[in-house]
Design goal:
Layout: E1 4-5, H1 8-30, E2 35-41, H2 45-61, E3 64-65, E4 68-70, H3 76-88, E5 94-97, H4 107-113, H5 125-133, H6 141-152, E6 161-165, H7 172-181, E7 185-189, H8 196-200, E8 205-208, E9 226-229, E10 233-234, E11 240-241, H9 246-249, E12 255-256, H10 263-282
Parallel strand pairs: 1-12, 2-3, 2-4, 2-5, 6-7, 6-8, 8-9, 9-12
Antiparallel strand pairs: 10-11
Helix pairs in contact: 1-10, 6-7, 6-10
Bound molecules: NADP nicotinamide-adenine-dinucleotide phosphate.
NADP nicotinamide-adenine-dinucleotide phosphate is lined by residues 142, 165-168, 170-172, 189-193, 196, 209-212, 215, 230-232, 263-264, 267.
C-alpha cells in the first residue's frame, strides 16, 4: 500500500479557514484584526519570495501586514530601534525578523530585542526555554507544523520511537523537544553520528532536517515508518526536492510528507497561528485552534 500523503497544503488551507473564522468572530470584541510585522533587511532573493508568501497568507486569512524593508546597510542600532517601535505598536501582535540578515548584523541580538509575547517565529530564547520547560508560549513554526501534520493524520507519537535528523535551533532541537513532550522516545542524530542508518532504521517516526538534498533513501527507513521531510532545495534542472528520495521511500513508509506541499506550507500557517493566538490572548478570546 502506498504511503499516506502528509498533505501540508490541505491542512494549511483548513487551518486558514479556522483562523479566518476566529478572526471574524473575535473582531467585534477586539475592535481590530490581528497584525503581523515582517521585518526584512537587505535583498536576499529567497527571503523576498518568503516574505511575499507570508504577506499573501495574511491577506487571505484577514491579518494586517505591517512589514518593513530596510536597506542592507542599516546599522544594527537602527534595526533594534525599529523592533522596539513594533513592540510598542498596539496594532501589532506578531513580529518576525526574516533570516538570514546581511553579514555584519547580529541576528541573536535582534531576536533578544523582540517582545517575547509578539515572537511570531517562537525563536526568542525565553520562548525556547518555555518549550524546554513544557510551558505554553509561541512555538517554533517549522517543528510546530510537523506536529500539526502528524496530529491531523492520526499519527500519535506517544510511546513511539522517533528519530530527528538535524540539531539546529531552528528545526532539529525544538522538533526533538516537541516529540518528547508528545511522549515519543526521541533520538537526535547529526553530521557526527556514526552509522546513521542504524539509528534511522529504528524510527517509527523519522523527521529529516539535515538540509542535504535526497540523502535519505530506502536503506534508512524502517518499514511502516512515518517520514517527514523538512528539507527544501532547488533542483539544478528546476523544481524542488527534499532531503528524502521520495520515490524510494514511498513504497516502504506508512506516511510521507511531499516536497513541495508538505512541511513548507505548514511553516507559514503556524506563523499566522502564533500571531492570531497572541491577538486572541490579548483580547480574552478563545484559542483559535486548540491542540495545534
Ligand atoms: P542547518 O542549520 O544547516 O542544520 C542541519 C542539521 O543537519 C545540522 O544539525 C547538521 O549536523 C545535520 N546534518 C547535516 N548533514 C548531515 C548528515 N549527512 N547526516 C546527519 N545529519 C546531518 O539547517 P536547518 O535550518 O535545520 O534546516 C534543515 C533543512 O530544512 C534545510 O534544507 C532547510 O532549507 C529546511 N527548512 C525548511 C523549512 C520549511 O518550511 N520547509 C523551514 C526551515 C528549514 P551538525 O549539527 O553536526 O552540523
Amino acid at each position: 500500500m502506498p504511503a499516506q500523503r502528509l498533505d501540508g497544503r490541505q491542512l494549511a488551507a483548513e487551518l486558514e479557514e479556522v483562523m479566518a473564522a476566529a478572526i471574524a468572530s473575535g473582531l467585534p470584541r477586539a475592535g481590530r484584526p490581528p497584525g503581523l510585522a515582517v521585518l526584512r533587511v537587505g535583498d536576499d532573493p529567497a527571503s523576498g519570495v518568503y516574505v511575499a508568501n507570508k504577506e499573501k497568507a495574511c491577506a487571505r486569512v484577514g491579518l494586517v501586514s505591517h512589514g518593513a524593508h530596510l536597506d542592507a546597510a542599516t546599522p544594527q542600532a537602527e534595526i533594534e530601534a525599529k523592533l522596539r517601535q513594533l513592540n510598542q505598536d498596539p496594532a501589532v501582535d506578531g513580529i518576525l525578523v526574516q533570516l538570514p540578515v546581511p553579514d555584519g548584523l547580529d541576528d541573536r541580538s535582534l531576536l533578544l530585542e523582540l517582545d517575547p509575547a509578539k515572537d511570531a517565529d517562537g525563536l526568542h530564547p525565553l520562548n525556547l526555554g518555555r518549550l524546554l520547560r513544557g510551558e505554553p508560549g509561541p512555538r517554533s513554526c517549522t517543528p510546530a507544523g510537523v506536529m500539526a501534520l502528524l496530529r491531523s493524520n492520526g499519527i500519535d507519537p506517544a510511546g513511539k520511537r522517533a528519530v530527528v535528523i538535524g540539531r539546529s535551533i531552528l528545526v532539529g532541537q525544538p522538533m526533538a523537544l516537541m516529540l518528547q513532550a508528545a511522549n515519543a522516545t526521541v533520538t537526535v542524530v547529526h553530521s557526527r553520528t556514526a552509522d546513521l542508518a542504524a539509528h534511522t532504521r529504528e524510527a517509527e517516526i523519522l523527521v529529516v532536517a539535515a538540509g542535504k538534498p535526497l540523502m535519505i533513501g530506502a536503506e534508512h527507513v524502517r518499514p511502516g515508518a512515518a517520514v517527514v521531510d523538512v528539507g527544501i532545495h532547488r533542483k539544478p534542472e528546476g523544481g524542488l526536492c527534499g532531503d528524502v528520495r521520495a520515490a524510494e521511500v514511498e513504497p516502504i513508509a506508512s506516511a510521507l510528507s511531499p516536497v513541495p506541499g508538505g512541511v513548507g506550507p505548514m511553516t507559514v500557517t503556524m506563523l499566522l497561528l502564533n500571531t492570531v493566538r497572541a491577538w486572541s490572548q490579548r483580547f480574552g478570546l478563545p484559542d483559535p485552534a486548540p491542540g495545534y
